[in-house]
Amino acid sequence: MPALPPPEPGDPVEAVDTPALVLDLDAAERNIATMAGYASRHGLLLRPHAKSHKSPELARLQLAAGAVGVCVQKASEALALADGGVEDLFVSNEVIAPAKLAALARLAGRVRLALAVDSPLGVQRLAAAVRDAGTTVRVLVEVDVGQGRCGLAPEQAGVLAAAVLAAAPAGLTFGGLHAYHGGAQHLRAPAERAAAIHDSARRVTVALESLQRNGIRCPLVTGAGTGTFIHETGTGVWGELQPGSYVFLDRDYADNEPAPGAPRFEHALFVKSRVISEHGTHAVVDAGHKAHAIDSGMPGVWGRDLEFGNGGDEHGILTRRGAEPLPALGDTVWLVPGHCDPTVNLHDSYVVVRGGLEHGKVHALWPVAARGALR
Amino acid sequence: MPALPPPEPGDPVEAVDTPALVLDLDAAERNIATMAGYASRHGLLLRPHAKSHKSPELARLQLAAGAVGVCVQKASEALALADGGVEDLFVSNEVIAPAKLAALARLAGRVRLALAVDSPLGVQRLAAAVRDAGTTVRVLVEVDVGQGRCGLAPEQAGVLAAAVLAAAPAGLTFGGLHAYHGGAQHLRAPAERAAAIHDSARRVTVALESLQRNGIRCPLVTGAGTGTFIHETGTGVWGELQPGSYVFLDRDYADNEPAPGAPRFEHALFVKSRVISEHGTHAVVDAGHKAHAIDSGMPGVWGRDLEFGNGGDEHGILTRRGAEPLPALGDTVWLVPGHCDPTVNLHDSYVVVRGGLEHGKVHALWPVAARGALR
Predict the structure, then answer these.
(1) CB of B92 within 8 A of CB of B116?
(2) Rg of the Cα atoms in chain B
(3) Residue A172 has what DSSP assignment?
(4) Could you give the residue ranges of the DSSP H alpha helices within chain B?
(5) Degrees (nearest 5) of the Cα angle B313, B337, B68?
(6) Which of A13, A37, A17 is nearest to A25 (CA)?
(7) B154 or A1, which is more confident
(8) Phi, psi at residue A73, to the nearest 5°?
(9) Is the predicted pLDDT of residue B2 greater than 80, yes or no?
(10) By the CB < 8 Å criterion, does A280 face chain B?
(11) Which is it for the CA torsion B64, B48, B80, B109, positive or negative?
(12) Does B5 contact chain A (CB < 8 Å)?
């Protein structure tokens, strides 16, 4: 059965069928350069989070701009990105399943690999897998710095780091502390974000003292996201930044009140949609929450004074905010996703464009290589 | 790079790695039989909505139990299910893009195909595509029966149906009215749902009068969902039912207060997850909202008195509700998705099990064939 024809390089953007996940590559490249320049000016390592884009192509652009490697959140993401040529990966999450640990330990024979741990069982199982594979894995002890999710209490860092060091003969090395505060990223006022990260820094300091009491030097503190990285920088405690969303700048991040002097990013990720039903009161587009994630609220409507309302899995409902008329049947409507990471995860590929959304052309189709990489 | 090994038929369910989308096939078959028996007893056609499962295997089970065909929401879903052997498809949604209409018109040369319309432009473009393809497509005029999304006002049905009939030489046939009220499905009290569908029936009656004024006979009224089908049945107006979620019964549908005498369904769709981080206050599982959709709220925790809290894209946070202790590191936790349709759309395949979640075995892996079929 012939499928619907995919976009081809050289096609005008206006010909791209909907719904489509569209990457404005010019804007993404500017975002990548901005963040790389920031990290470099501040003498910080940059290890962008690839959970946002799940794309070897975007990871390679980040690496070419100076990133030391990328973070991933899942074993299967690490495997997919390694398949795509990425050679330095940090799984910034706990892995407990022996089958996953075995796969990661083998992967460490081909790429530089690091992993977060927050439990003695995690260290023990990882050490067993790495010993069996005959490889080496760098281990970061995750500390809870305010998120209340994974990570151990700061004062316990020293004991777990000692367990990692004790497993050196098995192939573990101690890489330092993983300290990320997800909940701080979308506090709207910069002063709130600064205060949250100030408290995170205090907790990292407690963890560092715990290491010191155990006679352990800390090679690195890694963490930070797109919403807070200037605050982590300001504390002087972190040595590596892990932002992910800056490549795309979703609606939720754009709604943050910017901190004075912070680098600015541009929207680079869009869902192209089309009006399929028109009414006096509203217009219905063909992109619902199977096409863009709504966990962080509704998408913005790019360049138009219209409100997007939840129309269910396959529909969005546009209403007027002011005098601007509703779009007509068949019209294109560009959406700025509420949350980039889970939006990308809904699509099999990016339609990569150059020259802008209005008059640009399709540059390539890039697979979302780690789409659905949940394990 | 060796991927993580997929589950194999015959594996015990306890060996299935996490997160995984697990279908309890025994329960799904009982749900399918229950709905088929209901439709048959009431002399109604059953055309289940395949937007829920996106699976040719599940569609074939529904057809074998007596369904006349299935509904889909997207042109690309129709193509995927036709590829999987489904021969009677209704796209219960508006399609405006000429490329999609051309593909559907060609598809109508291989399967029995129907499509919803709610605009003269929709009829005109569909007629042009069908004429070019030399095929025949059955057209249902969509009426807004309370959802406030697609569908025209009931009193306009006659004029649009006349336009469909005028396009008979091009290959269109008039199939009747598509009348679905999505917003009524999750009203919690049966009396509220009954009242909403009573009002929908009133609107359908207005549409039928509009057809009559135009001298047009209505062959069929189709609609209804898992939450309301007994109410549509009760009105005597609908001739075909379109429920989808009954195959799975997600947490949101189970939260509806059941109507007296209504058929009962069982949970058949689960996300298997695992504890990856444990704390005195909470346990963290490896399934966040990239593994199960949260547009209709958090998942339930199957068989345990625990609360699931949003832990972001890749994590869920379990807390106690009563005396039951938290699960331990590495323990399996079964989640009942908040909303089945978009949860299924996150996964590449179902791990199909027989014999129950505790002691059962893997029966097969079934692809979510129309996953990501957004166009």
Answers:
(1) yes
(2) 22
(3) E
(4) 25-41, 56-64, 75-83, 98-107, 120-133, 157-166, 190-213, 229-235, 251-254, 340-344
(5) 125
(6) A13
(7) B154
(8) -110, -15
(9) no
(10) no
(11) positive
(12) yes
Query: CA–CA separation, B65 vs B59, rounded Å?
Result: 10
Burial state string for B18-30 with b = 16 or more CB within 10 A and e = fewer than 16: bbbbbbbbbbbbe
Angle in degrees, CA B367, B373, B374, rounded to 5: 155
Asked if A73 and B314 count as a contact pair (C-beta separation under 8 A), the reply is yes
**Where are the strands (E) in chain B, listed by range?**
20-24, 45-46, 70-72, 88-91, 112-117, 137-142, 172-178, 221-223, 240-241, 269-278, 283-285, 300-301, 306-310, 316-320, 332-336, 349-354, 361-367
- Torsion region of B272: left, alpha or beta (phi above 0 gives left; psi -120 to 50 gives alpha): beta
| Side chain identity at residue B26, one-letter code | D
Tokens encoding A275 = 């009006």
User: In terms of CA atoms, which chain B residue is nearest residue A5?
Assistant: B99
Residue indicated by tokens 């067993």 = A128
Q: Tell me the ipTM for this assembly.
A: 0.97
What token pair was written down for A53?
A: 């884009």
Condensed to tens digits (0 to 9), the pLDDT of residues B186-209 reads 999 999 999 999 999 999 999 999
Nearest Cα to Cα of residue B229 among B178, B183, B194: B194
B145: closest CA among B120, B177, B189? B177
Rounded distance between C-alpha atoms, residue A129 and residue A103, angstroms: 8
Q: Which chain B residues are Cβ-neighbours of A113 within 8 angstroms?
A: none
Structure tokens at A171: 């192939």
Confidence label for A2 from pLDDT (cuts 50, 70 and 90): low
What's the CA angle centered on B169, arms B168 and B173, to 5 degrees?
20
| Diameter over CA atoms, chain A | 72
For residue range A284-295, list pLDDT tens digits in order. Answer: 999 999 999 999
Instruction: Please list the alpha-helical segments (H only) found in B69-135.
Output: 75-83, 98-107, 120-133
For residue A356, give the amino acid letter: G
Residues from chain A contacting residue B317 (CB–CB below 8 Å): 148-149
Do A96 and B51 lie within an 8 Å CB cutoff? no
